[in-house]
């Protein structure tokens, strides 16, 4: 699975209508909504702001924004699937050119504009992560940090006291090894559900 590495856009014209596809990496629904609002502010005179986003393998949403049902959001989403892209948002802005495209023409236009952006965007591989919690005595914190750093874990939260707590994420393939190394030092590690 891949994700958009950095914001990207592409533009196509079909029968005087202009379609501008924007791609963004996202971490959640709130970020997708914020970016969509930003695109709408940048293009206040556009007729439609259709979009699709995908988070992980299961969560997604698509929206036709006033276009006939199934002619915009779904073709955008299907391109995200086609390129195996997740944790990403695709927004296609349409400026109406005065010529009706019909159902087939709209599907093709939204599909092609999204594809044009995806073909030229820089993608990065998504590495499945495990979020875990670790508990250690204060004296063991340097050991915990050292092993986390070696495993490439990203610290998300920490609480340092006599009994220290850490919440971090690490590549799924690194988790079992990290967990067993820390267990040898009596550091409790538990994956979040």
UniProtKB/TrEMBL annotation:
GO biological process, one term: regulation of translational initiation
Domain of life: Bacteria
Gene3D superfamilies found in the cross-reference section: Impact, N-terminal domain (3.30.230.30)
SUPFAM superfamilies attached to this UniProt entry: Ribosomal protein S5 domain 2-like
InterPro entries, alphabetized: Impact, Impact_N, Impact_N_sf, Ribosomal_Su5_D2-typ_SF
A GO CC term assigned to this protein in UniProt: cytoplasm
One Pfam family named in its UniProt record: Impact_N
Residue intervals of the Impact N-terminal domain: 15-118
Family: Belongs to the IMPACT family.
Record's protein name: IMPACT family member yigZ
Organism: Cardiobacterium valvarum
């Amino acid at each position: 699975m891949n994700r958009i590495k950095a914001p990207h856009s592409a533009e196509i014209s079909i029968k005087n209508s202009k379609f501008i596809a924007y791609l963004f990496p996202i971490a959640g629904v709130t970020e997708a909504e914020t970016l969509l609002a930003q695109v709408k502010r940048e293009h206040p005179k556009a007729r439609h702001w259709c979009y699709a986003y995908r988070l992980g393998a299961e969560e997604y949403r698509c929206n036709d924004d006033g276009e006939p049902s199934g002619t915009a959001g779904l073709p955008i989403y299907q391109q995200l699937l086609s390129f195996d892209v997740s944790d990403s948002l695709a927004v296609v802005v349409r400026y109406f050119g005065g010529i009706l495209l019909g159902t087939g023409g709209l599907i093709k236009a939204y599909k092609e504009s999204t594809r044009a952006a995806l073909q030229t965007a820089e993608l990065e591989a998504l590495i499945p992560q495990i979020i875990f919690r670790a508990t250690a005595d204060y004296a063991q914190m340097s050991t915990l940090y050292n092993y986390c750093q070696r495993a490439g874990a990203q610290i998300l939260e920490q609480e340092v006291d006599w009994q220290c707590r850490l919440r971090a994420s690490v590549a799924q393939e690194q988790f079992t090894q990290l967990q067993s190394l820390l267990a040898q030092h009596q550091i409790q590690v538990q994956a979040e559900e």
